[in-house]
Design a protein that fits this description.
Order of helices and strands: HHHHHHHHHHHH
Number of strands: 0
Structural class: mainly alpha
Strand content: under 5%
Shape: globular
Largest sheet: none
Length: 362
């Protein structure tokens, strides 16, 4: 009876845990993003503490420096980005009309009948009103959601920087001394992997945004700033993000500048993909416990389905942490199995010392 109750209670707990995860995906995503940011910023806090700064003052200095950096970035880049984005939105009907007269669109029209589907969707006035209201409502709700998410992540990150270490110390104090060393080693590996990954991915995003913006400005693309920022932000999602952004920017360059401009843009993104894939990304992923590219893509696929763009961004650090945990579990299993499979060799018998000969006195 005790075994039956234990099994039923375990199944009930697992069911409750699955339901909890499915119903709190937004909160879990925000908490995971704040945890990753706090781990990355804690490296800077630790450096200041090694120089003699108190913990609270070091946290305040790092947070204030990040706020100033974001504010400076916003003041310098957001006005021109907004102006060029508004111009791109205003020019979109002309660009779409130019796209409709292209050969690829005609090929799709002949097979999918896109124009007829658009006319059927606009034939009902109610659908037309819904179609006009829905994008505006979607834009407002999306902006409000992103604002709430940013504020939540900010406060969660600050609180984790202030009180996260105390919680970890209390946890490790309660762990049995025989396992404490192993848990500390796993925590240190995950801490170094996440910090190294986030620092490296920030470098990759900066390099991508800078090179793409310079290339588009040199080639005469009128909307080089928003497209360059979009390309840099796409590197937050390894492999899949830059490929999608490169294809989209190539299409925009083709509509604005023609076939030769699109060809040059495509060649640039192919060359940059080689630079990021063979030089920059290995330097980053080497610090994340050598996460396999296949594991990276699979984790991005599943977490993007589970939590959207936030899930795709935090997929690689979570995959690195899971890989470290699985490696340690397998190491524990080997330690338990190897002594039973390979018994220790018996020590050779030690010979008895020879008896002492009595000394004769003359």
């Amino acid at each position: 009876m005790k075994t039956v109750l234990t099994v039923c209670f375990g199944v009930l707990l697992v069911t409750m845990l699955v339901g909890f995860v499915l119903r709190t995906t937004v909160a879990l995503t925000l908490s995971s993003a704040a945890l990753l940011l706090s781990v990355a910023l804690d490296h800077l806090v630790a450096r200041l503490e090694r120089r003699g700064w108190p913990h609270g003052l070091a946290v305040a200095a790092v947070v204030f420096a990040c706020v100033l950096l974001i504010a400076g970035f916003a003041l310098l880049l957001i006005p021109p980005v907004v102006a060029q984005t508004r111009a791109l939105v205003n020019e979109w009907p002309r660009l779409f009309g130019k796209l409709r007269h292209s050969e690829p669109y005609r090929w799709l029209e002949a097979r999918l009948h896109l124009a007829r589907q658009v006319k059927e969707a606009q034939s009902n006035p109610g659908d037309l009103v819904k179609g006009a209201v829905a994008p505006v409502w979607l834009a407002i709700s999306t902006a409000a959601s992103w604002l709430v998410a940013a504020v939540s992540i900010f406060f969660l990150t600050v609180l984790m920087l202030l009180f996260g270490r105390d919680l970890l110390r209390q946890f490790f104090v309660e762990v049995r001394p025989s396992r404490r060393v192993r848990y500390l080693r796993v925590a240190r590996k995950i801490y170094d992997a996440i910090g190294g990954y986030l620092g490296g991915i920030l470098l990759i995003c900066s390099v991508n945004a800078t090179l793409t913006t310079l290339f588009l400005a040199i080639t005469g693309e009128p909307y080089f700033l928003p497209l360059g920022v979009l390309s840099g932000a796409s590197s937050l999602i390894p492999y899949a993000g830059p490929a999608f952004a490169g294809a989209l920017i190539t299409v925009v360059a083709w509509v604005n500048g023609g076939l030769w401009m699109a060809l040059a843009t495509g060649i640039y993104f192919i060359l940059y993909g080689q630079l990021e894939g063979n030089v920059l990304a290995p330097l980053v992923f080497r610090r994340t416990a050598n996460v396999n590219p296949l594991i990276t893509l699979v984790s991005i696929l599943f977490l993007a389905e589970l939590a959207g763009i936030f899930g795709a961004i935090i997929a690689v650090p979570l995959a690195a942490a899971a890989q470290i945990g699985v490696h340690e579990l397998l190491a524990v299993r080997r330690e338990r199995l190897e002594p039973g499979l390979l018994p220790p060799p018996s020590a050779p018998p030690t010979p008895n010392p020879p008896p002492e000969q009595p000394t004769q006195r003359h």
